[in-house]
Design goal:
heterotrimer, A alpha+beta (357), B mainly alpha (262), C mainly alpha (281), A: alpha+beta, Rossmann fold, 2 domains, six-stranded mixed beta sheet, five-stranded antiparallel beta sheet, 20 strands, 36% strand, elongated, B: 262 residues, mainly alpha, MetI-like fold
């Protein structure tokens, strides 16, 4: 059942078109991450749902259209990047703010606030003021405050960007567990693709006001539909070549008119000679030190340019003979040095054809 | 971004703005009135009252004295304020807050009390009032204004830049002069402007110390009390117009920053 | 540079200036306790007569009380109007802010004497206020606003407004826009947001403005002088008259000391009560 439905949303800011005909559906209990670089319109989209931005197109929350419904009448909860806590109110007063507005009896408010303090691990901080809290604590108060009014959808605008790395990762886990426990439909805006991959049921990738791809994290990561998504999510090596026939399940592609490589692709009729873009993730590149046996079929020779030691593995930057520089992730089985001769290759099923749209 | 209806507020706001602007507009209008009455709108256009100013030696002398005092006390208060500010923000000693409070203390003393204090002091010391006593008064009055601006500018400029310069071989004095001074230049200019304006327009305290020479505000005040032709309006406009022009110019370049959203 | 020489060079000049200032203040206090031996002749003795004269006379005290009262209600009016202007600027776009801002800054840099004189031109018998009201038929006779408390009050408010607007505007600007949006998302209507979020968070600015304006209005000389014409004299006018016209320095000094004490106490009380009103901001 759809909790939030956005249809054909377009919005302008001055002379700029910030959103172009965006449509999106959030299902009950779904955690949707809206991901993209700054300026892509993701925050604007969130504000459209909240009702703070003028737009064309329709928004409906829990089946009810939001036409003409001001923000304070929509059943939403927002958590901002800078938390936006009321500095002149205590933690308990912040959390209870929405409840007091609804004129609930004092006793009831106290019980609810208490429950949220426990849920968000804020016990003992009820009478503190925001200026006396740490960043992580403020974040939790902001979440508690938003949840207190039982919103139908929770909107999070880059809530973890201000936290340092370790705290951020802890909060990611906490946030996800909390969301699943409470079961609330959530829209989470971020520019951090790792965060999106880690948290979301569904990722929506945006660029310049449009949705470029949406789907479960694994789907978006393994099968990016276009260059933008491929580049934005995870690291990628993008190759250009020309179609040169098929071999069973695989498409044969020549790179730099010299090297014939295979790409698994079912039923994509590519005319011989057609230009092809495809992607191979660094961790799928296979490396072979060249000492004796030169590069053979299905391999491209190159020279190691630079090695980055990353604890668990190493990133090897290779200058291919074709002129392209690629990145490969390798285990520590073999220690690579700049200047080493190497032959790279991949399994056909690890190469992905890119469609430009 | 946030769609709100503010019509009531807009009407109230612009009305208040108009009320604020009205007296100054009237002033300018009256100054060009050909007739002797101080009426608005002016019944014509005449610069006779401006010309009249040239005949009034009192005004000319008062202007000279006021400018002298303003320039002098600005130089003094900015210099003294800068020296003290350096001590407060760069040296280590006990009682910094106290020193700053002491320097700013004239701010909370009412003008009339300051004037009174200077009067009785000079009287009890048997000193006749003169330019010197007025000058000291103006220095006392302008110092806190200048010091406040300068201290906050110095406090905002990071010490580490000076230290970096020193590590590259500059002596502390050189480091200060070539690194910090350029950074606080806007603060120094602001301090000078505040000091100048404060001295130039000072009336209540100064009037205790005038003798047969007076300052411009005092001269203007006396004229307004005794006579009623537009000469005072002409003089006031002469002072007002440069202010308006300067403020508009200044704001055209900097204004957006001062009032724009974060 | 040796320590002592350093402090001498940097703090010495300021010490001189402030030292002289302190000296004048102490002479004034001393004079307030001295007997008056004739015009501008101050005796060497010690007496409480001057204070007795000032504090014991309802006539003289009246000046002080009248000043405190006028300053009180004028500050109240200035606060309301000043808040309105500051809020108007806060909710407006850059161009409006610039125009109103320029208007205020021009006032700020123009001498009090000139501004008060300009107000006089507006509210005088031949001023534009009267001529407009007469033309519109709202009144039959020109209003006598000059030489009355109403005129003085009007002048006070107009002259003080810029000092109230700036600190309040600064406070309003420091409110993060997200805080208002958060309140709205929790169900607060615009009115609620104004009273529960905007107003409380603007209190530091209001406090600063009230302190500056009250002090200014309490001890104002120019406004009652020009607009009151002697009929609405306030405490500063009294002090001046006693010092420069009656040449009774001791009495004037005593009145000045009392005024200073009242000012200091008022600042202290005002700041204290505002701190209670705005915890933690």
């Amino acid at each position: 059942m759809a909790v939030v439905e956005l249809r054909d949303i377009s919005a302008n800011y001055g002379n700029n078109r910030v959103l172009s005909s965006v449509s999106l559906v959030l299902a009950q209990g779904e955690f949707v991450a809206v991901l993209g670089p700054s300026g892509c319109g993701k925050t604007t989209l969130l504000r459209v749902v909240a009702g703070f931005v003028e737009h064309t197109g329709s928004v409906s929350i829990a089946g009810r259209p939001c036409e003409g419904v001001p923000p304070h009448k929509r059943k939403i909860g927002i958590v901002f990047q800078d938390y936006a806590l009321f500095p002149h109110r205590t933690v308990a007063e912040n959390i209870g703010f929405g409840l007091r507005l609804r004129k609930l009896p004092r006793a009831e408010i106290a019980v609810k606030v208490d429950g949220l303090l426990t849920l968000l691990q804020l016990r003992g901080l009820a009478d503190r003021y925001p200026s006396e809290l740490s960043g992580g604590q403020r974040q939790r108060v902001a979440i508690a405050r938003a949840l207190a009014v039982d919103p139908q959808v929770l909107l999070l605008d880059e809530p973890l960007s201000a936290l340092d790395k370790k705290l951020r990762e802890e909060m990611q886990v906490e946030l996800r567990q909390l969301q699943q426990r409470v079961g609330i439909t959530t829209m989470f805006v971020t520019h951090d693709q790792e965060e999106a991959l880690a948290l979301a049921d569904k990722i929506v990738v945006m660029d310049r006001g449009r949705i470029r791809q949406e789907g479960p994290p694994a789907g978006v990561y393994v099968r990016p539909r276009n260059r933008f998504v491929a580049n934005f999510i995870g690291k990628s090596n993008i190759f250009e070549g020309r179609a040169a026939g098929r071999d069973g399940e695989d498409l044969i592609c020549t790179i730099a008119d010299r090297y014939g490589m295979k790409i698994r692709s079912e039923g994509d009729p590519q005319l011989p000679g057609a230009k092809i873009d495809f992607l191979v993730r660094p961790e799928r590149i296979r490396l072979r030190p060249v000492s004796g046996t030169p590069a053979g079929e299905g391999e491209i020779p190159g020279t190691v340019r630079h090695v980055v030691y990353l604890g668990a593995h190493q990133n090897v930057h290779i200058a291919l003979e074709t002129g392209q520089v690629i990145e490969a992730e390798a285990s520590h089985e073999h220690t690579w040095q700049p200047g080493d001769a190497v032959a790279i290759g991949w399994r056909p099923e690890d190469a992905l054809l890119l469609i430009e749209d | 971004m946030w769609n709100r209806r503010h019509t009531g507020l807009k009407i109230a706001g612009w009305t208040m703005a108009a009320i604020l602007a009205l007296p100054l507009i009237v002033l300018l209008g009256v100054s060009v009135n050909p007739g002797v009455e101080q009426v608005f709108p002016p019944q014509g256009f005449s610069l006779r009252w401006y010309a009249n100013l040239a005949n009034r030696h009192g005004f000319i002398d008062a202007t000279r004295l006021t400018l002298l005092l303003a320039v002098g006390s600005t130089i003094v208060s900015v210099t003294v304020g800068l020296l003290a500010g350096i001590a407060i923000t760069r040296f280590d000693f006990l009682g910094k807050d106290l020193v700053l409070t002491a320097i700013l203390s004239p701010l909370i003393v009412p003008q009339v009390v300051v004037g009174m204090a200077f009067l009785v002091t000079l009287s009890s010391l048997g000193i006749v009032t003169s330019v010197v006593s007025l000058a000291i008064l103006h220095c006392v009055i302008t110092l806190p204004f200048a010091a406040r601006v300068i201290v906050s500018a110095l406090a905002a400029s990071s010490r580490s830049l000076e230290e970096a310069a020193q590590s590259l071989g500059a002596s502390p004095v050189r480091a200060f002069l070539s690194v910090t001074v350029p950074m606080i230049r806007p603060g120094l200019v602001a301090a000078a402007i505040f000091a100048f304006v404060t001295s130039f327009e000072n009336f209540t305290a100064s009037q205790f110390l005038v003798w047969d020479r007076t300052t411009l505000p005092v001269e203007l005040y006396n004229f307004v009390q005794t006579e009623s032709d537009p000469t005072a309006a002409a003089l006031s406009s002469l002072i007002l117009l440069p202010v308006i022009v300067l403020v508009i110019l200044f704001n055209s370049f900097i204004g957006q920053h001062m009032f724009s959203r974060k | 540079m040796r320590s002592l020489a350093r402090y001498l060079i940097f703090l010495g000049p300021a010490a001189l200036v402030i030292g002289f200032f302190a000296f004048t203040m102490s002479v004034m206090v001393r004079t307030s306790f001295a007997p008056n031996l004739g015009p501008a002749i101050v005796g060497d003795g010690f007496t409480l007569d001057n204070y007795g004269q000032f504090l014991g006379s309802s006539f003289y005290l009246g000046y002080l009380f009248r000043s405190m009262w006028i300053a009180f209600y004028c500050t109240a009016i200035t606060t309301v109007l000043g808040f309105m202007i500051a809020y108007f600027m806060f909710r407006s776009g850059p161009r409006t802010r610039l125009i109103v801002g320029v208007l205020l800054i021009v006032q700020f840099f123009t001498a009090y004497v000139i501004r008060t004189y300009a107000v006089m031109l507006v509210i005088g018998r031949t001023g534009i206020l009267n001529s407009t009201l007469l033309d519109l038929g709202i009144i039959q006779q020109p209003l006598s606003l000059l030489f009355t408390e109403v005129g003085v009050a009007a002048g006070m408010v107009l002259v003080s407004l810029p000092f109230m607007v700036f600190p309040i505007f600064a406070s309003l600007q420091s409110i993060s826009p997200n805080v208002e949006m958060a309140a709205a998302s929790l169900g607060a209507s615009n009115t609620r947001i104004f009273w529960q979020i905007v107003v409380p968070l603007s209190m530091p600015g209001v406090a600063a403005g009230v302190v500056i304006v009250y002090l200014f209005e309490l001890t104002s000389y120019i406004v009652p002088g020009i607009l009151g014409g002697g009929y609405v004299d306030m405490i500063a006018n009294l002090i001046y008259a006693k010092a420069m016209q009656s040449f009774d320095h001791p009495f004037a000094a005593a009145a000045a000391v009392v005024t200073l004490l009242v000012s200091a106490t008022t600042i202290y009380l005002l700041q204290k009560s505002f701190r209670v009103l705005s915890p933690r901001t």
